[in-house]
Amino acid sequence: MGEKSNSSERWLTAHHDPLASLYTFGSCMALADLHGDGDSKLIIADLGTGAYNMKLKVYKGTNLMSKNTLIDLPTGVITFHMDTTEPRVPAVAVSSGSYIYIYKNLRPYFKH
Q1: Is 93 in contact with 104 (CB distance < 8 Å)?
Q2: Could you give the strand order of the β-sheet that contains 91-96, starting from the edge strand earlier in sequence?
Q3: Cβ(75)–Cβ(56) under 8 Å?
Q4: Do you find a cis peptide bond into 87, omega within 30 degrees of 0?
Q5: C-alpha distances in angstroms, 74 versus 9, 17, 53, 54, 95?
Q6: Is the four-CA dihedral 100, 36, 39, 64 of positive or negative sign?
Q7: What is the phi/psi pair of residue 26, to 5°?
Q8: Domain for residue 78, yes or no?
Q9: Where does the Bardet-Biedl syndrome 1 N-terminal domain lie (predicted)?
Q10: With the C-alpha atoms ordered 92, 54, 28, 65, is the resulting torsion angle positive or negative?
Q11: I need a labelling partner for 92 at 20 to 30 A (CA). Which of 16, 54, 69, 83 fits?
């Protein structure tokens, strides 16, 4: 018991909100510098209820920056660079249903 309490004290709880209502998997989260400003944002594909209300959410710290509706249940999120222009701003790919949706500058860009 003593070891367990010591190891839990090593973690910093930056934000704890039991009413945040975020439902997701580890594969549906990513950290990325979306604006090329050196500040990483948390990208979450929220499962909603599993049947409706699925959203792509971007957080800066504990504040919600943007929210986009997803048409189908998300299964994964990654970020990648589509071009070599400066500043290097990544695109966000979300696998949802049988498609991969690409978001550039946090706006829908391409469906594959």
Answers
A1: no
A2: 74-80, 91-96, 99-104, 107-111
A3: no
A4: yes
A5: 34, 23, 11, 8, 6
A6: negative
A7: -60, -30
A8: yes
A9: 11-111
A10: positive
A11: 16
Structure tokens at 26: 């580890």
Quote the tokens at residue 73. Answer: 């249940």
Label residue 12 by pLDDT band (50, 70, 90): confident
- Backbone dihedral region of 98: left (phi > 0), alpha (psi from -120 to 50 degrees) or beta? alpha
Flag whether 90 is in a domain. yes
Could you read off the pLDDT of 94-106 as tens digits, one per residue?
Answer: 999 899 999 999 8
Evaluated on CA atoms 63, 111, 98, 52, the torsion sign reads positive
- Helix ranges, the chain (H): 2-8
Domain that includes residue 54, residue range:
23-111
Number of H helices, E strands in the chain: 1, 8
Q: How far is CA 20 from CA 15, 48, 58, 60, in A?
A: 11, 11, 14, 15
Question: Which tens digit of pLDDT belongs to each residue from 24-53?
Answer: 999 999 999 999 889 999 999 999 887 889
* Residue whose tokens read 């989260």: 29
